[in-house]
Amino acid sequence: MLRYVRPISIFVEPEQKCRENGMRKIFLLSTEHLEDSLWFRDLEDFKVAMSYVALEALPHPKGFVLAFILMSNHLHFVLKGRHEEVVAFVNQFKRRYSIYYRRKYGVKEFLRDNGLDAKEIPYEDEAVERAIAYVLMNCVAAGICTHPSQYPWGTGGIYFCPEQTTGLCLKDLSGRARKRLIHSECDNLPGEWSMNPDGYILPQNYVDTSAVGKLYRTPQRLNYFLNNSSKAKKRLSIDENLPAFKDQTLLAALPDLCRSLFQKDSFQKLGKEEQAEMARQIRFRFSADATQIARVCGVSYADAARLLDSV
Q1: Cβ(252)–Cβ(42) below 8 Å
Q2: Domains with residue ranges and CATH for the chain
Q3: Global pTM?
Q4: All residues at 6 or more sequence positions from 158 whose CB lies less than 8 Å from its CB, including other chains
Q5: Above pLDDT 70, what percent of the chain?
Q6: For 46-69, how does the pLDDT look when each residue is reduced to its tens digit (9 = 90+)?
Q7: How far apart are CA 181 and CA 51, in angstroms?
């Protein structure tokens, strides 16, 4: 009688090797959600952060970064390496981005207390497939797009792509132009790496898309995991209550709204009653909930809820 043998993921490595000291493992790394502020206030912030991920990936082998996503108030990475390596990678990225953020917005120690969770992902039971799908589906769960491939600030659109997005090769740029585009003094980037036409280093240069493609085997199997991820189920359960606008849209509109209603140019300059009315106006005009209002106005969730409930 033929006996059914359950197929295993191609990421499974010999058990003896997995027990060896220093074995490279796969980790899901997630930063704490910022409650009263945003990582990225505008498109330029996202572009800079995309290039900073590339800069941090540069010293590592291409198989180090498997997937990531940059969200308005948190980040996720799926990395393959030793625990101390993957944690250092994200912390170094946070440190580099904090310096940029301080120079642009004057905010000191922006991410000093932002925690990082590093969870080891087992090779068995399709856990890696599910972890990557969870990361990619964050933008869909947030109501930003209907499929991860539509979201540019991560790796959702780079797998199973026979024709990858092409851009200008770094070798065709002057040293000064490279530094200006990536907001860094680093000048040892590979010349064959390419940049998106909008001005950031493409993740295809350093993400191991081949390994992830072999992991899922087909685009249909990738979509199966995407559609059955916990983030997809969350989207279905709260679909009617998702924010209608991106955080960056509200943040850009906030100064004009403050000026038109109260002749003041920022939320922080409003009195308590004016802040309460502003919170209600944001909810009415943009279908925003208390969590989103807290992020764009720079207040805690409790304060945002109190403003919305005040008479």
Answers
A1: yes
A2: 15-241 (3.30.70.1290), 247-309 (no CATH)
A3: 0.77
A4: 164, 202, 203, 204, 207, 209
A5: 85
A6: 999 999 999 999 999 889 999 999
A7: 9
